[in-house]
């Protein structure tokens, strides 16, 4: 059975758990990282030199980096069904996965940390405002894409929706005012109807 190291409140771990749910993959998960610690243990660093979560072990194969894990699971256990079949469609879905890491995270992570993981008396309002503006700008890019298609990779749900879908739940539940993006709201409503999303993503923010 696949083994996954990582805590359930990690956005990157949640990506993998959601993907497993979509593909019907059984797995064993070990609480790891955050309050559970273990990141710097020698045995763990030998598997994952970054010391981050998640780490996946499938037989003798070990893999880290959440988006790479999604692609691996889809290829091995999903017969590729969570990516469009055409090269263009596949590239489009993969683009949004890469964009989440290269661009989107830098905007929203400071906002999340300040509003959720920083005590109110220690928050910096200027940091919050700047992060909110950057995150809003990033979501505008997503809004424009979703004006063209129901999902980020096209008309059907794909891996392209998972990395940003994890953050959509956080965005809509942050204790702050946010602009209304009708296309993102409709997309988010569709994600909320998926059982694996309900199980693995729609959890109390922490």
**Treating each run of at least 4 consecutive H or I residues as one helix, how many helices?**
8
Q: Can you tell me the CATH topology of the largest domain?
A: Glutathione S-transferase Yfyf (Class Pi), Chain A, domain 2
Structural classification: alpha+beta
Spatial order of the strands in the main sheet?
2-1-3-4
For the record, what CATH class of the largest domain applies? Mainly Alpha
- Assembly of the depicted chains: single chain
Relative helix content: 40-55%
- According to DSSP, the number of beta strands is 4
Level-2 CATH architecture of the largest domain: Up-down Bundle
Q: How much of the polypeptide forms β-strand, as a percent range?
A: 5-15%
Largest sheet: 4 strands, mixed
- What is the approximate shape? globular
Structurally, the number of domains stands at 2
List unreliable stretches of 5+ residues: none
Mean pLDDT: 97
Alpha carbon gap, first and last residue: 29 Å
> What is the gyration radius calculated from CA atoms?
17 Å
Topology pattern, helix = H, strand = E: EHEHEEHHHHHH
Task: Walk me through the structure.
Helix content is 54%, strand content 8%. It is globular, with a radius of gyration of 17 Å. The protein has a 4-stranded mixed β-sheet with strand order 2-1-3-4, with helices on one face. The protein is of the alpha+beta class and 206 residues long. The chain has helices at residues 11-23, 42-47, 66-77, 87-116, 125-146, 162-173, 182-192, 195-200; strands spanning 2-5, 27-30, 55-58, 61-64. It has 2 domains: 2-77, Glutaredoxin (3-Layer(aba) Sandwich), CATH 3.40.30.10; 87-200, Glutathione S-transferase Yfyf (Class Pi), Chain A, domain 2 (Up-down Bundle), CATH 1.20.1050.10. The chain has 8 helices and 4 strands.
């Amino acid at each position: 059975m696949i083994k996954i190291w990582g805590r359930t409140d990690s956005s990157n771990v949640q990506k993998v758990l959601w993907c497993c749910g979509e593909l019907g993959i059984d797995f064993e998960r070990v609480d790891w990282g955050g309050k559970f610690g273990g990141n710097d243990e020698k045995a763990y660093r030998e598997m994952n030199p970054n010391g981050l979560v998640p780490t996946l072990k499938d037989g003798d194969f070990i893999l880290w980096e959440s988006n790479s894990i999604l692609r691996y699971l889809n290829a091995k256990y999903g017969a590729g069904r969570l990516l469009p079949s055409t090269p263009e469609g596949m590239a489009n879905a993969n683009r949004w996965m890469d964009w989440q890491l290269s661009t989107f995270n830098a905007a929203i992570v400071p906002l999340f940390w300040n509003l959720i993981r920083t005590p109110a008396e220690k928050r910096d309002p200027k940091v919050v405002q700047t992060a909110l503006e950057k995150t809003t700008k990033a979501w505008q890019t997503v809004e424009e894409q979703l004006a063209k298609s129901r999902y980020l990779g096209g008309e059907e749900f794909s891996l392209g929706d998972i990395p940003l879908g994890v953050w959509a739940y956080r965005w809509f539940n942050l204790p702050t005012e946010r602009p209304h993006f009708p296309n993102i709201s409709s997309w988010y409503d569709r994600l909320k109807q998926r059982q694996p999303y309900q199980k693995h993503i729609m959890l109390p923010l922490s």
